[in-house]
Amino acid sequence: MNDLTPTLDPKYAHLPLRLQRGILQRKLEREEEEREERRCQEGIAQRRAEIEAKRAAKAAQEEAFEARRQAQLSRDTPFVMTSAASVVLDTIDRCVRFGHNGLVTGAPGVGKTRALQEAVRRSGTMEGPPVGLVTVTGVMGNSTMAVLEEVAPHVGVRTVYSVTATLKLLCSRASEFPVLLFDEAQNLADRVARDLLAISEQARVQMLFLGNDEALKFVNSQKAAIRQIARRLPIREEIDCILDADADLLAGQYTVEDPEALRLCRNLAETHHADGIGKVLPIARAVAEAAGSRTVNLDHLREALSFFPHFLRDLARAKAAPQVERQSSFKRLPKRR
């Protein structure tokens, strides 16, 4: 500021010019500070508004997610203690009781994953033994470190920089001992399965592997490495189908009372197991509710099946099969072709 004389206040005219300029300088500084304060307050208010907007958006997103989850839950088939679920839960109990590892194989859609979810729920509510669920994807199954990163939190261990160091920690410092459940175990590479079973032996953690028929590669081979895996899986079960009684239980959850509709549910269970019933019956119930009916009849089922043409084709080709009673792993049933 080279010349402040034109802006001097007349009431300070009696003061020396140097003091007048100092007074004016301080006045300008105060005005600048006030403007800066206003800018800060505006920035704070804007920031608060942004935070509130983000909170509102997050709350709306969570509300929408919860509504979508509730809608999904309303469409999901509630848990029913089918024969397949009973086999899975009993196998978990046997692993806990006898301290052995196990292998459960079965056709896709019989209800293995749903039984595992129920086991996790019971574990969380202290209704059942503590379990930890790991779902093995195709990519994860080929990476030892990826699998160990999923296993470590369940046994109270944190992963470190390398596979070898993490394996040592899991074998020596496991502080929690749930039954580790590996869903889609057919995706596990042989070397990864051997590493997991080594952890099981050294840390005394029981493991149960569940998968489709491809998981039998761990026990049905004459290779030395595979036989080593098979030796560590003494508890084994196979689930090839669900029974007519299981189909009736699932249909009862959706108020299916018509005998013809029940027969169609049994045929659907014969071709597509519990998964097929779980897809068709929620739609059939929605159709029945739209029609003002409290029960699901044959017409409602047929309309729901129209959304799944491949189900209709499979039902048309299906032949009635004799109902069989499930047996234990000591009296293995021949697999149905």
Which tags fit this structure?
Rossmann fold, 337 residues, 3 domains, 11 helices, disordered C terminus, Helicase, Ruva Protein, domain 3, alpha/beta, five-stranded parallel beta sheet
Question: What does this entry show, briefly?
Answer:
This protein folds into three domains: 18-63; 83-239, Rossmann fold; 244-319, Helicase, Ruva Protein, domain 3 (Orthogonal Bundle).
Strand content: 5-15%
Question: Any idea what the radius of gyration is?
Answer: 33 Å
Mean of residue pLDDT? 84
CATH class of the largest domain: Alpha Beta
Topology as H/E string? Answer: HHEHEHHEHEHEHHHH
User: How many strand segments?
Assistant: 5
Largest sheet: 5 strands, parallel
Unreliable spans are 326-337
State the CATH architecture of the largest domain.
3-Layer(aba) Sandwich
Distance between the termini: 97 Å
Number of individual domains: 3
Strand arrangement within the widest β-sheet reads: 2-3-4-1-5
Within CATH, the superfamily of the largest domain carries the name P-loop containing nucleotide triphosphate hydrolases
CATH topology of the largest domain: Rossmann fold
The secondary-structure class comes to alpha/beta
Alpha plus pi helix count: 11
Helix content estimate: 55-70%
Shape call: flat
